[in-house]
Model the fold of this input.
Amino acid sequence: MARDKASRLIKKRMRVLDSAPDTLSDAMPGVEKKLYNQLKDLVLMLDIVEGRLVFSDKTAQTINKIEQKIRQSIKGSGYVDSVSEYLTSFDQINELSSEYFNTANGIKRLGVGINRLQKVTVDQVTYSLLENGLDARFTQPIKDLLTAGATSGQSVIEVRGILRKFIEGSDGKLGFFERYVPQIAHDAISQYDGAIQTRVKNKYNFNAWSYEGSLIDDSRPQCIRWVEMGVIKDSQLSKEIEWAFTNGSGMIPQTTPETFGVYRGGYRCRHHATAIPV
Done:
């Protein structure tokens, strides 16, 4: 009975880990469309003569003060709400991890500093997706393209087209948020989960990893190997990591037996590792 419940909890945790970043990225095309519609009139705030931008004192001053307008548009696009919803997934991972180790191993209180770890991780994600990180990657490029358009005397239509390509993408190229958000969202929650598992493994002297997740057509060689193994003992881990660097692909250079729970099969790995005793 306990084993069945533990298995269900692992599957539920995996669903949260998989769905949280996917739900966020699925919302991005709609966010980008709303954002462009709100920001396209930024161009009209600059000096324009006969349909072309002019680089003047007014243009320079307007571009320098445009951050607030962009922040308001981001908030009005639904992006902030999507990120806030994604961040609730960290609470779910905490709860499911605690319940799993209680069910599977009789550990009633993990005592591995989950709340502190969550705060640090959420602060980092918030910085990247909502605060200064977004200013540097989104706001500043918009200011740069407006400056370039005014300096070269581009038409309003041309600058709006460039702005649209940057925000929404075109010709098969993803828009800004579809490129930027999924990587951060996926890595943050999966590495957070891995950090919890690693702390539990170290504190309670567990000696193996259960490697979980489905295989798809482009699964990496090491992930295929480890899913088929199911369990990787500590005594095997160094050689398995060495095998992955030699025969696999996409491994993160910092992957060691100590960091395996966090980095697993490499960049944007869709598989998960659970600390277990064998």
Strands lie at 48-49, 52-53, 169-170, 173-174, 208-212, 231-233, 272-276. Residues 176-203 form the longest helix (28 residues). The two ends are 19 Å apart (CA to CA). The chain has two domains: 2-204, 206-278.
